[in-house]
Amino acid sequence: MDQFFDTFLNWQYIWEVFPDLLKTGLLNTLILSVAAAVIGTLLGMVLAVMGLSTKRWLRWPARVYTDIFRGLPAILTILVIGQGVGLLARGLVGNNPYPLGIAALSLIAAAYIGEIFRAGIQSVDKGQLEASRALGMSYSKAMLLVVIPQGVRRVLPALVNQFIALVKDSTLVYFLGFLTSQRELFRIGQDLAANTGNLSPLVAAGVVYLVITVPLTHLVNYIDKRLQTGRKVTAESNEMLAGGTV
């Protein structure tokens, strides 16, 4: 038992690594995750709209993209983008792997977020689109102002879950060889663990990850509960209107 505590809960190493975790690792993890989430959300919405198009030349590229980036292991995508595409983009990013890490995470996130958006949009009753068209809206305007907002609202919990997964996937970018100032949480913990032969720094990094992901998990549950309550109230109101009691 003493050996277990000394290997995983050595407070000397935990306190030693915490300043770097909070000052450097946390900041870089949030930058990687938030930047990839924003770019992935924008690309994902484009993919969702393309995937729902009746035109094959729009629908099929979106499906192929989604199948590829959902089917490949995340680490393989990161290595291909970081080391393969990095050679082609060296004139743009130089030897800095940081933008390439964000790009790789964004492309992965876009494939999943696109499917989330597509499912949300398809869950909206077709009568909403038909009613909007009957009011004189064009197809694109009806989708943009009526259908898509309702679809996004329905998949908010899934989007937050995807962000949690993105935070955890950010650990994989350490394979690209970031500079000391660019290291995320896992890399900082791993470096000290390798230097000391003790796993306590990785446990400390795990604690910081929990500080990020656990509140987000509860936020998902809260949003889902609120959405279910809203749907229940709407359904009851519709029943009352149909029954002529209002």
From TrEMBL:
Residues 26-220 form the ABC transmembrane type-1 domain. Its main location: membrane. Coiled coil: none annotated. Keywords: Amino-acid transport, Cell membrane, Membrane, Transmembrane, Transmembrane helix, Transport. The chain crosses the membrane at residues 30-52, 72-92, 98-117, 158-179, 199-223. Gene3D superfamilies: MetI-like (1.10.3720.10). Signal peptide: none annotated. The keyword Lipoprotein does not apply. InterPro entries: AA_ABC_transptr_permease_3TM, ArtM/GltK/GlnP/TcyL/YhdX-like, MetI-like, MetI-like_sf. The keyword Disulfide bond does not apply. It is found in: Cell membrane. SUPFAM superfamilies: MetI-like. Belongs to the binding-protein-dependent transport system permease family. HisMQ subfamily. This is Amino acid ABC transporter permease. It comes from Amycolatopsis halotolerans. The lineage of its organism: Bacteria, Bacillati, Actinomycetota, Actinomycetes, Pseudonocardiales.
